[in-house]
Design brief:
With 428 residues, the chain is an alpha+beta fold. The protein has 3 domains: 153 residues, Beta-Lactamase, CATH 3.30.450; 87 residues, Methane Monooxygenase Hydroxylase, Chain G, domain 1 (Up-down Bundle), CATH 1.20.58; 135 residues, Histidine kinase-like ATPase, C-terminal domain (Heat Shock Protein 90), CATH 3.30.565.10. Helices cover 56% and strands 18% of the residues. A 5-stranded mixed beta sheet has the order 6-8-9-11-10, with helices on one face. A 4-stranded antiparallel beta sheet has the order 1-4-3-2. Helix 5 runs antiparallel to helix 6, helix 7 crosses helix 9 and helix 9 packs antiparallel against helix 10. The longest helix is centred in the first third of the chain and has 54 residues.
């Protein structure tokens, strides 16, 4: 995951970099064009000024011929030649590349050229002038380096300012986020958000306050319902069961009536167990348990095994256990006891007669393995009231409760089937 600042800054930097790269050829074209236009004006000025100076000297034709010859020899970048008067020529601008013959290491360089007809002593002459334009590339390179330098300064400055400003601008948001992380619905206390002059944060605080008030109200209603249901439903169920127990002791009952009452008693017992389990699930979903207790996990396992020892003997199940001493976990004691009891009862229920149950406990996980013949359907494994075997004595909520307890305590439950063995692993 990336922070919001990097997500907004990175596209901006990429955009500026792309614009910078696109600007380089534009810089080159504009500067080169301006440079050539300036050189054209420069060359034209040289031609006109040279002609003016020759005319100003008022030389004879013979002296003019010698002077032009001397001029051509000492000015290698210019040339003056006589042309026919009847051949008019327009100014011609062009660029050539040639090697510098006078340099120690000749290099190919560009020259901006002008061919212009000038009149000296009222006679037409073709004046050719060439000016090196390599300086334009150096100018472009200097501008590009200068632009890149200031681009780097802008980017570094923006990153620095963004980080400094984010500390101030996003501080109310971080405070709000921290308060939300520490919010516990069990405490049913409202969050007091700090005042800020940022419109978006104020709107966020108002929306969160309304949401929290609604959540607390719903939580109170659900909690009252589960508590009332626990009390109101269990009481009549207990009375009915008590009456059935009295009825079963009646000596006037026929065998047929006895069987009917016994079936009713079993159904009532199962209904009472389902009611308790559903209420437990409701309390877990409503976060009505404290999970900050420090639990000695291996001790809870040993107590559960002692309590269920009779069930092991009924199916002649051998129990092998490998428990590390003093494995402490954070959670809720009562929920952890229910978790372990349900795992062991589930293992007993799905273990064949004379089977084996193996339990292992290490620092990071608890694993319970029991012998079996067929893999359980993982699609319905942790669904409520799903039937994974022909055993109808269970409530159909045992594995669902296991799953919800692990989820509530931030643990992980995994089921696998290997070598004719059911394996349930709880990762802390």
């Amino acid at each position: 995951m990336k922070p919001l600042l990097s997500k907004t800054t990175k596209p901006f930097i990429i955009y500026v970099l792309v614009i910078l790269l696109m600007s380089i050829p534009v810089y080159y074209f504009i500067v080169d064009t301006i440079w050539q236009n300036e050189l054209d004006e420069h060359n034209k000025t040289i031609a006109e000024k040279t002609a003016y100076e020759f005319n100003h000297l008022k030389l004879s034709n013979e002296m003019l011929h010698e002077s032009i010859k001397l001029w051509n020899s000492i000015q290698p970048e210019t040339n003056i030649e006589n042309i026919k008067a009847e051949v008019p020529q327009n100014d011609e601008y062009f660029t050539v590349e040639k090697a510098e013959t006078f340099a120690a290491e000749p290099e190919i360089e560009r020259y901006r050229c002008l061919k212009k007809v000038v009149y000296i002593n009222n006679k037409p002459f073709l004046f050719t002038v060439q000016t090196n334009i390599e300086e334009s590339r150096e100018t472009i390179a200097a501008i590009a380096l200068n632009t890149a330098f200031f681009f780097a300064i802008i980017v570094v400055g923006l990153l620095f300012l963004n980080r400094r400003l984010s500390v101030v601008v996003w501080n109310p948001f971080r405070n709000t986020l921290e308060k939300l992380k520490n919010f516990n619905l069990n405490h049913q206390s409202k969050i007091e958000f700090e005042k800020t002059d940022t419109t978006e944060f104020e709107e966020l605080h108002q929306s969160l306050s309304k949401l929290i008030e609604h959540s607390i109200s719903v939580y109170k209603t659900q909690k009252e319902f589960t508590e009332n249901a626990s009390h109101e439903l269990q009481t009549p169920l207990a009375i009915i069961k008590h009456k059935l127990d009295i009825l079963l002791q009646n000596e006037d009952l026929t065998s047929k009536q006895y069987e009917i009452v016994e079936d009713i008693n079993k159904a009532l017992t199962r209904s009472s167990r389902i009611n308790k389990n559903l209420l437990l699930l409701a309390k877990i979903e409503n976060s009505q348990f404290d999970i900050s207790e420090n639990i000695l996990f291996n001790k809870v396992i040993e107590q559960s095994c002692e309590m269920l020892e009779e069930h092991f003997h009924q199916k002649n199940i051998k129990v092998h256990s490998s428990l590390e001493m003093e494995v402490f976990v954070n959670g809720n004691m009562s929920l952890t006891e229910v978790l372990i009891n349900n795992l062991i009862v589930n293992a007993i229920r799905h273990t064949t007669q004379n089977g084996i149950i193996d339990m292992k406990l290490v620092d990071s996980s608890f694993q319970i393995t029991n012998s079996g013949t067929e893999k359980l359907n993982e699609d319905f494994l942790f669904k409520r009231f799903s039937r994974l075997s022909a055993d109808s004595t269970g409530s159909g909520l045992g594995l669902a409760i296991i799953y919800e307890i692990c989820k509530f305590q931030n643990w992980e439950i995994i089921y696998t089937f290997e070598n004719d063995q059911h394996i349930f692993t709880v990762n802390f």
